[in-house]
Amino acid sequence: MSEEKRVVGDNDVVSLEYTLTVDGEIIDSSEGHGPIEYIQGQGHIIPGLEKAVAGMAVGESKEVAISPAEGYGEEDPNAFVEVPKSEFPPNIPLEVGTPLQLRDAQGQVFDAYIAEVKENSAVLNFNHPLAGKTLNFSVKVVGIREATPEEIAHGHVHHH
């Protein structure tokens, strides 16, 4: 009897090396940081990537293109807000691409970035920076193990 090759399934802790390329530019990579570890099937990573990794074996790699719907969503045209320049603290550079964290009246924190700078105002974009983008991942599974009951209950990987 040959031993069945272990492949990624739900509630497995997966060690994954990855490189993310968007519009031909490398946006993120595990290189230099070591692989990420996450629990498969728990929604810790974007749905398209979870689908792509399911069923892969250790040592296997693949290239996968993930549509916005299975990545960070389409860009929401209602998520742009124009704000008068006078409302920005003086220490914030009013330049396109500047990331900001804003807090609403309930204390919830929102990430945004400056999408456009006009004469007297700046347009903030509350979409995820990768919304509307096709995500090109190069992934390699470097480890698979069963998640412990605690890890599943807590929803994250514990390092021993």
Report on this model:
The chain has 160 residues and is mostly beta strands. The chain folds into 2 domains: 12-72 and 132-154, Chitinase A, domain 3 (Roll), CATH 3.10.50.40; 77-125, Thrombin, subunit H. 8% of the residues lie in helices and 39% in strands. The chain contains 2 helices and 9 strands; from the N terminus they run E-E-E-H-E-E-E-E-E-E-H. The strands form 2 sheets. Strands 1, 2, 3, 4 and 9 form a 5-stranded antiparallel beta sheet that branches. The chain has a 4-stranded antiparallel beta sheet with strand order 5-8-7-6, with no helix packed on it. Strand 6 (99-103) and strand 7 form a beta hairpin. The mean pLDDT is 93.
- CATH topology category name of the largest domain: Chitinase A, domain 3
- Distance from first to last alpha carbon: 33 Å
Tally of DSSP helical segments: 2
Give the name of the CATH architecture of the largest domain: Roll
Helix content: under 10%
Averaged pLDDT, please?
93
**Rg estimate, integer Å:** 20 Å
The ordered H/E elements are EEEHEEEEEEH
Q: What top-tier CATH class of the largest domain fits best? A: Alpha Beta
Structural class: mainly beta
Total discrete domains: 2
Strand tally, please? Answer: 9
Low-confidence stretches: none
Let me know the largest β-sheet: 5 strands, antiparallel
Strand content: 35-45%
Basic shape: elongated
